[in-house]
Amino acid sequence: MTEPQMSPPHRPGAAPDPAHEHHGPEWADLARIALVAVGATLVWFRVWEPWPRVSVIGVVATIVGGWPIFREAVENIVARRMTMELSMTIALIAALAIGQFSTALVITLFVLIAEVLEGLTVERGRHAIEELLHYLPRTAFVRRGGTTVELPLPELRVGDLVLVNPGAKLPVDGTVTAGHSYVDQATITGEPMPAEKRAGDPVFAGTLNQGGALEVRAERLGRDTSFGQIVNAVERAEHSRAPVQRLADRLAGYLVYFALGAAVVTYLLTRDAQSTISVIIVAGACGIAAGTPLAVLGAIGRAARQGAIVKGGRYLETLATVDTVAIDKTGTLTFGTPEVTEIHPAAGVTPRTVIEAAAYAESRSEHPLARAILERARAMGIGAVEPQTFEATPGRGVVAGQADASVVVGNRAFLRERGVALDGLGGSPDGTGSEVLVARDGRLLGAVRIADALRPEAKAAVAALRSLRIRTVLLTGDQRAVATAVAKELGVDALVSELLPEGKVREVERLAGDGRRVAMVGDGLNDAAALAAASASGTAVGVAMGSGTDIARESADVVLIGNDLSRFVDTLRLARRMRGIIMQNFAGTLAVDSVGIVLAAFGYLNPLVAAFIHVSSELIFILNSTRLLPARRSESRRAPSGNLA
């Protein structure tokens, strides 16, 4: 059978090309099947046999009906490729030569029907990817020259003012210039709740405007939009070939040689032409040749639906064997921005009083810890009040106040220098974050703990990796005390801290050099080199968070859409499932062919039964691969989500 060809690239937003839309078998295929079926019936009832021992109807119907098989066999001979079309052609010619006209026609009918069923199955694999394009509208309302016109997406220009009505999907990436609404951005950012949008806010193509009307200035169109980049990545992955696919092609060729060799041995030993033909027919590697790329295609499409863009089948194959995951901390396991995690007021003081005083002192500071305090104050409804005086000591703290009162915010040593008693505060910091003490007029109000908070799914993702018997290694530039506290909370297997970017590269290379199959997960500029090193090793995979930097995403082999590390775990499981299905197809094909050839050689299979076994086993293995195809769009609640802008 022919290997499935991938669909041509398609521009997001443009109307589908009718020349490339296939909704079922071609009329020529159906007509050919009907011709062979009628021919087989006429030959069976011996209708019109002008010459003895020669069925004109049988010969003509076999040649016309089997023409696609014969043509591909010739093309493969010219290209020096051994395929099942060649062995099937030999079998059909041999059947006609010994007068088995009904057998030749029934075999041809089996093969043609199998081709149609295979085509329908592979077509579903193509459309599973192409359905991504349906998440973009085909036209947009644009304000030009004082009037509003509806234009196809390919006619839009950067700078156009696009009007988006409530309930409509955004056709472009851009900035809101007018209007107020809530936009469901799950298809791009992975956020579960709609985001409020006002003038000046960014919006993305493929997201859904839920509330009021918006006017958007177009900044990125078509392939350049966030959604277009998702489709680009998936299409590139479609056209790449994994090593397992090349192995499947080689195995298919070897099985043809094996079948032809077994047929020659059978004829030399038995002199039985029917058994020889049966041996040629029963052996088939079409289930491998077609089922393997279909499994890879289905896995890539399902990964995109689940929130991961895999840039090629070979990366899925490597992911299937990963036994070690090296994970960056900041921005990958954490949010990447400091926030107040704990408030410990002194006796008789409320948490609100502590934050109110701290925000008052830090209102002029640009320090990241100050921004975390001010953000918590805003969340608690505490308004900003500017102090009259402000003095900052880098690395220690600040003093702010008025003529008759002052607030001191800083570390323990800084407050002691200001004469603040720390009785009852407790021990020294435990390394889980930065401790900020707050005092007013010489009296301690309390302590605030500020840390880069762990993402809620991070701990569950690490536990899930452990359940898959995958070793986790935390790589971070943080100091040992902070990194140790985070590693303990997450439950990772190993920790390497105080790393510069080149240190992460060395760790990935060391792990790969030790024979580990490594996946490096990161998001920032300092992770790009490690991600690239993982990709270049051939035995490791670079995985970037979709919320990370552009260079991190470009350096990685897999991009997780949004910020959810659990999607990486899902992708690992999917890769293992893909590999398992392909191995099932390999083992099943070898078993069926081996048993079938032995039975045929000893005369237990006639050509018709051999053809039935060949076709049915092929379809079983192809259908086995379709288990990886994503559900149809009507059954899927969401498109892939992520930020590839």
Fill in the keyword field for this structure.
single chain; about 650 residues; alpha+beta; Calcium-transporting ATPase, cytoplasmic transduction domain A; Rossmann fold; 4 domains; 7-stranded mixed β-sheet; 6-stranded antiparallel β-sheet; disordered N terminus; disordered C terminus
How would you describe what is shown here?
- The chain is an alpha+beta fold.
- The chain has four domains: 18-131 and 233-304 and 574-635, no CATH class; 157-220, Calcium-transporting ATPase, cytoplasmic transduction domain A; 313-333 and 455-556, 3-Layer(aba) Sandwich (Rossmann fold), CATH 3.40.50; 338-453, Calcium-transporting ATPase, cytoplasmic domain N (3-Layer(aba) Sandwich).
- Helix content is 46%, strand content 18%.
- The protein contains 20 helices and 22 strands.
- Strand 21, helix 18 and strand 22 form a beta-alpha-beta unit.
- Helix 1 runs antiparallel to helix 2 (56-65).
- The longest helix has 36 residues, at 566-601.
- Mean pLDDT is 81; it is low at 1-24 and 633-645.
